Amino acid sequence: MVASTMAESTMKPSAEGQTTAAKLIYFSSASNYTHRFVEKLGFADDLVARLPLITSRPTLLTTEPYVLLFPTYGGGDGRGAVPKQVIKFLNVPENRDLLQGIIASGNTNFHDAYCLGGDIVARKTDKPVMYRFELMGTEQDVTKVKEGLEEFWGKQ
């Protein structure tokens, strides 16, 4: 199970920030919906790292290929759909280069903007949206994402 301090235990300090070799990097707001979903996946702590909630802190620096999981913000026009923490993380060229795919969460009440943040990052990075789920996800979502990631990682 992913502990709330899990990211700290899997990272090493560097001059720019914390480095990580996690295969799944995620952002979760203070609501912790995304964090709860990641906990349900049950991956070992060394496979998962959480982006800092506070943007004034240094972002993570990844050293290995990874999948990025994050929620969509906003409710309609797409402005602000990608969390600032995700933008900051992807503005680091090495982080962007090692991105393999995206898992997006959202709210179906947003209609056409459901998981729009994932679509925006996919377009800008030319990487696929591997899965979409609503809010904290269903048990089916958890199973599909867990099995899909295990299969994907097994091919690398």
TrEMBL record:
- The source's domain of life comes to Bacteria
Q: InterPro entries, alphabetically? A: Flavoprotein-like_sf, RNR_Ib_NrdI_bac, RNR_NrdI
One Pfam family matching this protein: Flavodoxin_NdrI
Q: Gene3D superfamilies per the record?
A: 3.40.50.360
| SUPFAM superfamilies assigned | Flavoproteins
What function does this protein fulfil?
Probably involved in ribonucleotide reductase function.
**To which protein family does this belong?**
Belongs to the NrdI family.
What's the name of the protein?
Protein NrdI
Please name the source species. Micrococcoides hystricis
Q: Could you read off the lineage of the organism from its UniProt record?
A: Bacteria, Bacillati, Actinomycetota, Actinomycetes, Micrococcales
